[in-house]
Amino acid sequence: MVTYHFPNDPFAILLAPPLDETPEQRKAREAEEDAARKVSLRIDEELKAEKAAAKKKKNGVKVLVLGQSESGKSTTIKNFQLAYTYQAWLDERASWRTVIYLNLIRSVNHILEILTLEMTNQDSLSHQPTSAHSPVCLRHSEESETDTSDGETFVARPPFAFTGKHKLLKLSLAPLRSVQKDLEVWIGAGASKPQDLSTWYDYTDAAPFAEVERLAPRTSNPRRPNEFFIRSNCGWKETLNKLRSGLSTSPDHLQQPKKGKQDSVVEILAGCSPNIKSLWTDEVVQAVLKRRNIRLEESSGFFLDDVSRIAARNYEPSDDDVLRARLRTVGVQEYSFKIEKGSEIGRDWYMFDVGGVRTSRAAWFPFFEDCNAIIFLAPISCFDETLEEDHRINRVKDSILLWEAICSSRLLSKVQFILFLNKCDLLAAKLTRGTSKIQDYFPNFASEQIDVKSVAAYFRDAFKSILKNSTSSPPRQLFAHMTSVTNTKTTAATLDAVRDTIVHNTLVSAHFI
Ligand SMILES: Nc1nc2c(ncn2[C@@H]2O[C@H](COP(=O)(O)OP(=O)(O)OP(=O)(O)O)[C@@H](O)[C@H]2O)c(=O)[nH]1
Ligand SMILES: [Mg+2]
C-alpha cells in the first residue's frame, strides 16, 4: 500500500487518489489524467494560435466594403481575389456552377411567368365581344393590362402573335420551376429574396447602425460578436464550401438534396437548353419584354446569352462567369489577402464583405471599430431604380443617405474613404437608350452634356460635399473612382491605385511616413 503525505494542502488532499487504490484503478486514473493533460495542452496551443492571429491581424490592413444591396461589393472582393489570391480563386471557381445554374433558371422562369400572364390576359381580352377584331387595349402603365376603371389613360397596342410554339415552350420548360426551388433550398439564405419592406407603414432606416452607435457607450469598445458574424455559416464563402462538398446549406437536414440531385439538375438543364435558347431568341417574347421595359440583359445574374455553353454537361465556370454570378451576401464575410507586389509585399489585408439590404445594415457597426479604410460602392446607373427590399425608395438617394451616415460616424472619423461610382457600363447603356431622364430624378442636375462623365461628376460632387460637411477633423480627402467592377481589366488598375492609397494612408496615420 502507498502512503501519501499532504502537508496542510487542502487541494492536494481533495485531489489525492484514494488510499486503498488498486493497481488497475491506478492505471485507469493515470490514463484519464493523461488524456486530460493532452486536452489542456491542445487548448493552450489553440489559445496561443488565436493570440498570434489577433496580433497579426492588428498589424494588418482592415478594409470594410460597404454599399447598398447589388451595389457590387462582393464583385469588388472577387476582383481582389482574382488579383491577389488567384489560387484561392481557382479552388473556389467550380463551386459557383450551382449559383450560375440558379441565376440562369431564374431568368427563364421569370420570362415564363410574364409570358403566362400576357397570354392569359390576351386570351381573356380576345373573348370579350368588343375586342374580337380590334387591337388589345392596354393601360399606359406597362404593368396593368386589364383594369378598365374610370380615369385611366388607355393606349391601343397590337396584340402579340402568340402561337402553339409558345404554349409548347411553356410546357417543356415547366420542370425548371421545381429545379429552381430545389436549388434555392440547396444554396440557402443567399438565394432567397430580401424581406419586402414596401408594405411597412413606416420607411425603414437607411443607416440603422447610426442608432446603434448613438446608443453605444462612448467609453466602451463596441465589441464584435465575433462568432456570430465572422463565422456565420450563411456567408457565401461557406455556401460555396458546402456546395463544393455536395452538402445542403439549409439548416434543415430534411431538406438535404438526395445523392445525384446535382446530376439531375445538369441533365434537366441540358435537355431544356435548345428550348431555353428558342424562348430567349423568340421575337414575340422579346417584344413582350420590351413592352414591359424589362431588360434582363442588364440585370444581375444574366446568363441567357450563354445558355448553350452553361447548359452543356461538361460546363466549367469561367472567371467572367463567376464575376457576373449573383449570390446575395447574408451576414458578414471575412477575406484575407497577402500583398504580393510593391513595397508593402507580405502585408496582410483583411476585407469584410457585408450584406447590403437595409435590414442587414445594423450588423455593420461592430466592424467600424478598428478598420483602416472603407470602399463604398454607389451604383450610379440606378438613378431611376428603386430598392428591391423597398420599392418606395430611389436607389441613388438611398446610397446618399447611407453615405451621409457613414461620413458622420464618430468611429469612422479617422478612416480613409474610397468611393466607387459603380456600374458605369450600365449607366452608359441607359443614357444611350435615353429612356430615362436624370433630371426627372435629380432636378439639380444642370449639365448640358448628359454622358457618363457628367453624371459621374455630378454624383461625385454630391458625395464629396457630404464628406466635406461631415464633422471630421482634419478634413478627409475623398478618392473617387468611376468603375464597372464586372470588367476585370479596368478594375485591376483601380485596385492597384486603391491598394496604394490605403497603404499610404494607413502608414501616415500610424506615423510611419
Ligand atoms: N454590368 C455590371 N454589373 C455589375 C457591376 N457591379 C456588380 N454587378 C453585378 O451586380 C450583381 C450584384 O453584385 P454583388 O457584388 O453581388 O452586389 P453586393 O453589393 O455584394 O450585394 P449584396 O450582397 O446583396 O449586398 C452581380 O450579378 C454583379 O455581377 C458593374 O459595374 N456592371
Ligand atoms: Mg454581396
From TrEMBL:
SMART domains: G_alpha. Transmembrane segments: none annotated. CDD domains: G-alpha. Mg(2+) binds at residue 329. Keywords: GTP-binding, Magnesium, Metal-binding, Nucleotide-binding, Transducer. GO terms for biological process: adenylate cyclase-modulating G protein-coupled receptor signaling pathway. It comes from the Eukaryota. One of its GO terms (molecular function) is metal ion binding. InterPro entries: Gprotein_alpha_su, GproteinA_insert, P-loop_NTPase. One of its GO terms (cellular component) is cytoplasm. GTP binds at residues 323-329, 422-425. This is G-alpha-domain-containing protein.
